[in-house]
Amino acid sequence: MVRLVSVCASLTDDELALLEQLAMPTHFASGDTLFSQGADAHCVYNVTGGVVRLYKLLSDGRRQVVGFALPGDFLGLAMRDAYGFSADAIGDVAVCSFSRGAYTALVDAKPHLLKRLHEFATHELTLAHEQMMLLGRRTAEEKLICFLLGMQQRWARLGKPSVTVPLPMTRQDIADFLGLTIETVSRTFTRLAKEKTILIVPGGVRVMNPERMLAVAA
Amino acid sequence: MVRLVSVCASLTDDELALLEQLAMPTHFASGDTLFSQGADAHCVYNVTGGVVRLYKLLSDGRRQVVGFALPGDFLGLAMRDAYGFSADAIGDVAVCSFSRGAYTALVDAKPHLLKRLHEFATHELTLAHEQMMLLGRRTAEEKLICFLLGMQQRWARLGKPSVTVPLPMTRQDIADFLGLTIETVSRTFTRLAKEKTILIVPGGVRVMNPERMLAVAA
DNA sequence: CTTCGGATTTGATCCAGATCAATGCGGCAA
DNA sequence: TTGCCGCATTGATCTGGATCAAATCCGAAG
């Protein structure tokens, strides 16, 4: 099993052993749903491989992607009765799942772990505030550039630093994350490629002019 | 002193006494800045009276209001070195402030409190996800109606249920919260008033047709 | 190799909300 | 009372991104 990144870094060995006992390794095929918005929250998940799309739907079908979970990310940590969003696999995904009961018991018993989870939650909240700025006040080009730099940074923190940013999600997913349409995303990618800011490669994008991109993200 | 709502509900008496020893009651006049984005995070605040505007700025002056803090709300709980947003008083504001050192020491010592804070943070995260949906996918009219219903609900939970929703913030603040311009906010208010969905009163809005509003918020 | 179906790109046109520009409306200081 | 000075409203016009409408591309199945 992939060592649980991010949440477990500060645990003692016995705590880690306990955690691994409770962890149920599971995997999902491309497109599978881990859980749906409003469903009873049985499980908490730690992603160990692959990418998960997190999203909310409006009754008329409008969709907002609230995030993409990468290895190390924690899902369903809002200790509530029902999931606040839906999650499904983009490509094959591996997770460690914990039953809600085991999770809450463990959290009650181990302040270390709770503290780590709280840090994780506040970090998520900070990212959410940045996403609000992006959604409310940035232009289409800025949105896309911020998204690319953000993904690059996240992959880098996972030990995969590269000028080529993998983008396993569809254009529609990106559009729904950035509050745009698929056409605007596509056109903006094309424009950035034409002016040699990026190079579009299969499965992702190569950053060609990081200076310009960082200046736009400001 | 107003009893600390929301965070301290589950504390034992001795814990509460300890907390009150550490709490420094402070107040701010209208327009005063509690703290600025990027500044060293000395203090954590619990709002006890008034309303606080929380916002982020882009270098060119574009502003995104990430929230309005009401009595009971906690500010600066992201245990980090620097504040992630700025906060200033809308009208007179009373808070209990805690030094960062005292706060972290207390949190380390009292798992109860940490658990409450974590619940608070995850609730904030859920609200942030809803705000992303609103910013990314809703129309101007929907944004305004959701905002009004949300504020009404928050005042109600604080023991002030009323069909008249107080709006102490300016139109510009509302616009910057909803990702709109002040003109669009004003026009949309006027339109809703003309069709008798709301009645605009000094300092706020009276909800006249909650059924229609709830249907739009869906 | 060919065919099919979803994803993506590209083009033409439209429109919700932005921008530009007055005007109105208190509240408060002199 | 008068005159500001910030808000807020209203009107006219513009435009970035949405919508509508075809192509293209491409990987998987046969």
From TrEMBL, chains A, B:
GO terms for cellular component: cytosol. It comes from Bosea lupini. Keywords: DNA-binding, Transcription, Transcription regulation. This is CRP/FNR family transcriptional regulator, anaerobic regulatory protein. PANTHER family: CRP FAMILY TRANSCRIPTIONAL REGULATORY PROTEIN (PTHR24567), FUMARATE AND NITRATE REDUCTION REGULATORY PROTEIN (PTHR24567:SF75). It holds the Pfam family Crp. Residues 7-76 form the Cyclic nucleotide-binding domain. SMART domains: cNMP, HTH_CRP. Residues 138-211 form the HTH crp-type domain. InterPro entries: cNMP-bd_dom, cNMP-bd_dom_sf, Env_Response_Regulators, HTH_CRP, RmlC-like_jellyroll, Tscrpt_reg_HTH_Crp-type_CS, WH-like_DNA-bd_sf, WH_DNA-bd_sf. The keyword rRNA processing does not apply. GO terms for molecular function: DNA binding; DNA-binding transcription factor activity. It comes from the Bacteria.
